[in-house]
Write a structure and sequence with these properties.
Layout lengths: L11 E5 L4 H12 L3 E6 L2 H6 L8 E4 L5 H8 L4 E4 L4 H15 L2 E4 L4 H18 L2 E3 L7 H11 L7 E8 L6 H9 L5 E4 L2 E4 L6 E5 L6 E6 L4 H8 L4 E7 H8 L17 E10 L2 E10 L1 H16 L8 E2 L2 H4 L2 H6 L7 E6 L1
Parallel strand pairs: 1-2, 1-4, 2-3, 4-5, 5-6, 6-15, 7-12
Antiparallel strand pairs: 7-13, 8-9, 8-12, 10-11, 11-12, 13-14, 14-16
Helix pairs in contact: 1-10, 3-4, 4-5, 6-8
Length: about 350
C-alpha cells in the first residue's frame, strides 16, 4: 500500500510531460495517493485539452529551452517526475531546474546515455541541494534494478546478472517512437566489471518465460537498467534480453498505438526475470504485471513518495536499489500492479 504519511499528503509533485501517454498515468496515480499534481506541458493546447480526473490538478506551461519557464512551473513543488521523451532532449534541463528549486528529480528514461549522464552530471549538485536524483525509474531501468537488488540480496560479490524481459506484445505510443529515433548510441553491457558496447548482431536465445508470455525467442537489447545496476551492484557480467516478438512490434511502423480499456490500461502483459549468480549460487526473481506504461506510474510514484518521507536522507544521484529497500518497494505494488517471487536454485 502507498505510504501516504501525513507529511506527504497534499504535497505538490510536478509532472513534466503530463499530457503524454505515461504522464497521464502518473498524474492520476499522484491524485490517488493524495498528492496535488502540477501538470506541465510544452503547449497550452495540450494542457487545455487534457482530461484529468480532478479539477485540483494545477496546469502550467514550460519548455526545456526556457529556463525561466521551468523555474516558474516547478515553483511550490516538492519533486518533479519527468515523463517527456526523448530524454536526451529534456532530462538535463528539467534536472537542472529541479536543482535550482531544491527538489527531488525522477524520470522514466530507457535511454542509456541519458541515464549515465544524469548520474554523472547531477550527483554533486543533488548532494549540494540535499535532494535525490533517480533517472530511469520506470519499467525499463529502475524496475529491473530493484529486482536485481532483491536477487543479489546479502551477497557481497556478484559474478553475473541476466535480465530477461518478456512482453506478449508492444504497441508503442508516439513518445516511444520519437525516443527510438533519437536514441542512436551503441548500447552498453557489462563484461569483466566494465561497461562495454554490446556485440552486434545481438546475441539470440530462446527463453521459457512464465505465462502468459511463455516460450519466446529473445535478442540482447540492453536498456537503462544496465547503467543503474552496474552503478551499485558491480556485477562482473550484466546482460539484458528482450523477447523478439516485442522488438518486431516496436520496429514495425504499422504497429498501432495501444488499445486501452476504461482504466486507460492496455491488455499487454509482461514477465521480467532477473537471474543473479555468485560463487556457484543462483537466485532468480520473476515478476509479472500488465501494461508497461501504466505500470511505470505506480512504480515511480511509490519511489517519489518515499523520497518525500521525513526520514529520507540520501542526497545525490543514485539507482533506486542503492538507497531504498528494494523488496519493500516492490511489495508495496502487490497485488494490484505486480506479482513477484524469489527462487534460490
Amino acid at each position: 500500500m502507498p505510504l501516504n504519511t501525513e507529511k506527504t499528503l497534499g504535497k505538490r509533485v510536478a509532472v513534466y510531460g503530463a499530457t503524454g501517454h505515461t504522464g497521464l498515468f502518473v498524474v492520476e496515480e499522484l491524485l490517488r495517493r493524495g498528492f496535488v499534481p502540477i501538470a506541465i506541458a510544452r503547449s497550452e493546447e495540450a494542457l487545455t485539452s487534457a482530461r484529468f480526473s480532478d479539477p485540483k490538478v494545477i496546469r502550467r506551461r514550460a519548455t526545456v529551452d526556457d529556463a525561466e519557464s521551468l523555474d516558474r512551473a516547478l515553483a511550490g513543488a516538492a519533486a518533479v517526475i519527468n515523463c517527456a521523451g526523448a530524454f536526451l532532449d529534456t532530462a538535463s534541463a528539467v534536472a537542472a531546474a529541479a536543482m535550482r528549486a531544491g527538489i527531488h528529480y525522477l524520470d522514466v528514461t530507457a535511454e542509456q546515455p541519458n541515464a549515465l549522464a544524469t548520474l554523472d552530471d547531477f550527483d554533486a549538485p543533488a548532494r549540494k541541494a540535499g535532494v535525490a536524483v533517480i533517472p530511469a525509474m520506470g519499467f525499463y531501468g529502475g524496475f529491473a534494478d530493484l529486482l536485481a537488488t532483491v536477487a543479489v540480496g546479502e551477497w557481497d560479490d556478484v559474478d553475473g546478472i541476466e535480465v530477461l524481459i518478456g512482453l506478449d506484445s508492444w504497441h508503442p505510443p508516439r513518445g516511444t517512437r520519437l525516443t527510438g529515433e533519437r536514441n542512436t548510441a551503441r548500447r552498453l553491457v557489462v563484461e569483466n566489471g566494465q561497461l562495454v558496447p554490446v556485440n552486434l548482431p545481438p546475441a539470440e536465445k530462446v527463453w521459457s518465460f512464465a505465462e502468459p508470455v511463455g516460450r519466446q525467442a529473445t535478442l540482447e537489447i540492453p536498456f537503462s537498467e544496465v547503467i543503474l545496476i552496474s552503478s551499485h551492484l558491480k556485477p562482473s557480467s550484466l546482460h539484458t534480453h528482450l523477447s523478439a516478438n516485442a522488438l518486431r512490434d516496436v520496429r514495425d511502423a504499422a504497429t498501432p498505438a495501444p488499445v486501452v480499456d476504461a482504466t486507460g490500461r492496455s491488455t499487454q502483459h509482461f514477465v521480467v526475470e532477473v537471474v543473479a549468480t555468485a560463487g556457484g549460487r543462483t537466485r532468480r526473481v520473476i515478476a509479472k504485471g500488465r501494461d508497461i506504461y501504466a505500470f511505470s506510474a505506480p512504480l515511480i510514484c511509490e519511489v517519489a513518495e518515499r523520497l518525500l518521507r521525513p526520514d529520507f536522507a540520501h542526497a545525490g544521484a543514485h539507482a533506486p536499489g542503492a538507497i531504498l529497500d528494494a523488496h519493500d518497494v516492490l511489495s508495496a505494488l502487490r497485488p494490484d500492479h505486480l506479482t513477484f517471487e524469489v527462487f534460490n536454485d
